[in-house]
Amino acid sequence: MARRIIINGEDLDLYHDEKISFNLRVNSIADISNRNSSSSNSILIPRTGKNQRLMGFSGTIGNNSIVPYSSVRCDYIIQGTYIVVQGYLQIINTLDDSYRIAIYDGIIDFAGQLGNKVISDLDFTPENHLLDFGVFEASFNNTDGYIYALGNWGKRDTLANNAVESHGVSVYAHTIWDRIFTEAGLTYTGSFFDNNTDWLSLVLPATRGIDIIEATAGTTDEGLGSTDTITDNTNYGTYGSQFYTHEIDGLTDTYTAEFTVNGAGEIVVTNTGTMEINATITYSQVNTRVRWQCLLNGSTKQTVDLPYTSTSSPQVVSFTMLVTAGDIIKFTLQVDNPTPMGAPSPTYFTHNFSTSSAIQINTISGGSLIEVKDYMSTELTQKDFVKDILQRYGLVMIRERDNTSEYRFISMEDLLDDRVNNIDWTNKLTKIEQESYQSGYGQNNIGDYKYLSGVASTQGGILTVNNSNAPYEKNIIDAPYEIPETSVYKLATISLLTVPIWEYNEDDLIYESIETSPRLLRVIKDTGNVVFTIFGSVGTTITIDIPYLSLSDMSYQYFFDTYYANFKDLLDFYKEIDVTLDLDIVDFKQVDFGRLVYFRQTGRYYYLDTVKIQEAGATAKLIEIRNFNS
Predict the structure, then answer these.
(1) Element (H, E) at 107
(2) Cβ(476)–Cβ(445) under 8 Å?
(3) Of 467, 479, 468, 521, which Cα lies nearest the Cα of 499?
(4) Over the stretch 267-326, which tens digit does the pLDDT of each residue have?
(5) CB-side exposure of 200: number of CA atoms within 13 Å?
(6) What whole-number distance in Å separates Cα of residue 67 and Cα of residue 91?
(7) Which is nearest to 594 in space by CA: 406, 436, 455?
């Protein structure tokens, strides 16, 4: 069997008789860790001169190679067919005459990209805003980005205390989800994200008090400039990003009061203050991924991923940021194409695009700039946020093998319901080797949140499984969020939830901002007349639908009942079969974990768990669907 492993555009030398197997796996709904990623068995490759060079001379006396500690990008090809595109290779150990390596692909790469990044590491520049009464009220209608939903934030000592400056900002969970994928350079698909109103109403409230001052905002137009046009139409031999800098030229205003433009086409800030940038990005591209970025002193403040298109199509973006005299602002492009062309050989990656930008700048005086990231959790990791959403909604996460930067999501309920789009492997089944009946779940499978010390569980849930041979009880979901207490204060018919971002200092007789635990809550609307003040102003009555933080439909019992019904039936009569299959390399390439498998020999549909390709044939692990929607 002709096999190739390619790193840095070069083929590794392989042993001709080395047996390589590769397991395709989909993530479980309970984890996104590396045990659910596709991977090879351990592979021995010879320590030829070429391989030693590509392995950074690992194993040689006195070497300082970083390759064993790095994610080395690789492709794995069998008989001219790409099995892994832009996976990564890991050195397990070094022997006298060989390296022992393994190849990984899929979810492990995603988890590795997120690392230990927390929610406050995300760029929330698009959500930054100047807070005054009008912006506060207007946020009530927001369905993405930020919203000022009502709660008891810790400054409430009377029912009438509805001061704007004491409220915390909340960010929609779907905005955070989208930002995580965007900043990781990834895209995702799935009807769940567009159609599920349950998901679209979740928010993460602020975890500390907002520092604002009393002022009314005003803007001053500081001028309009344009960038140069950057184009490329090049085939690159190896995968990687190309970076370009847009230079400011063709100024219609010199920006002399607040900004200058240096010889490198960068904006140099003259005065400290708040700046608003409005950019119109004109572009054309063919199958190329282009990310437009605004950098402040080398740190990214705004990103725009330009949609795939072959037609020039302007994108408009507006954002606000604090600047200091001497700061440097520049506009850059990051360009790549994750899909190899010309397979199986030669392989190349095409960058074909053209972009330019018009930059309009305002300075803003007065108001209080709310930089949203300053109020998001420094405790909750992005990985835990994603994992919780997968668990909560029973989502299956599938990495698209022909586009390594795209993930597809499908709910377990939809997958187990879909008999139409099945894979018929009737003619591929060689033998059912064995049946197994232990799912790893218990009779009572518990999901729950965190609670304050001494507070009983109120929002947990139990997924019951009718298998008397299973362990009686098992914890399957420990949410990273704390459940808030319900305060004594009520507005209209809504009892306010307590999210304590303020604490009263009895020594200094002032309220101080404090850090609180992350929470995931729902926004509900209620019609009523609520009087708000700002900095002691005369109260203003708002009569539109008013958003509140809520625990409505947030219990794990709700999520189990709503999103795990078919999965529960699967576990009630759990039957796992191991089979041998007559799959060729094309079949293996086309394996889709988002579809059920059908065997006419048994008359049953199966959930596909694992497929393993070997030198001689293939094996698979499948779970029988027996008791519902036949």
Answers:
(1) helix 107-114
(2) yes
(3) 521
(4) 888 888 888 888 999 988 877 888 898 989 988 888 888 876 556 578 888 887 878 889
(5) 10
(6) 8
(7) 406
Task: Report the 10 Å Cβ neighbour count for 62.
Answer: 5
- Position 166: which residue type? S
Q: How much is the pLDDT for 409?
A: 93
Q: How far apart are CA 497 and CA 485, in angstroms?
A: 6
**Three-state DSSP state, 587:** helix
What CA–CA distance (Å, rounded) separates 303 from 331?
10
| Host H or E run for residue 40 | strand 38-40
d(Cα 627, Cα 569) in Å, to the nearest integer?
A: 6
334 CB burial (10 A radius; 0-12, 13-18, 19+): middle
pTM score: 0.78
* Pick from 230, 252, 213: nearest CA to 306: 230
| 13 Cβ contact list (under 8 Å, min separation 6) | 45, 46, 48, 50, 51
pLDDT of residue 487 exceeding 60: yes
CB 131 within 8 A of CB 117: no
Asked if residue 36 lies in contact with residue 25, where contact means CB atoms within 8 angstroms, the answer is: yes
Query: Residue 622: which residues within 8 A CB-CB, separation 6 or more?
Result: 576, 577, 579, 597, 606, 607, 608, 609
Distances (CA, A) of 235 to 75, 82, 185, 242, 462: 18, 19, 21, 12, 55
The pair of structure tokens assigned to 144 is 């993405």
Tokens describing residue 482: 């704390």
Looking at residue 190, its amino acid is G
Rounded to 5, what percent of the chain is helix, strand, coil? 15, 45, 40
Number of other CB atoms surrounding residue 399 within 10 Å? 23
Q: What angle do CA 374, 273, 361 make, to 5 degrees?
A: 100
Summarize pLDDT for 356-380 with one digit per residue, the tens. Answer: 898 888 887 766 778 899 999 999 9
Q: Is 140 helix (H, G, I), strand (E, B) or coil?
A: helix
The CA-CA-CA angle for residues 566, 106, 23, to 5°, reads 80
Which are the contacts of 288, defined by CB distance < 8 A and separation ≥ 6? 308, 335, 336, 337, 350, 351, 352, 353
The backbone torsions φ and ψ at residue 589, rounded to the nearest 5 degrees and listed phi first, read -65, -30
Token pair of 593 as six digits: 């974990």
Q: Select the more confidently predicted residue: 515 or 215.
A: 515
pLDDT score, position 35? 41
Task: Say if CB 387 and CB 31 are below 8 A apart.
Answer: yes
Report the largest interatomic distance among the alpha carbons of the chain, rounded to a whole angstrom.
84
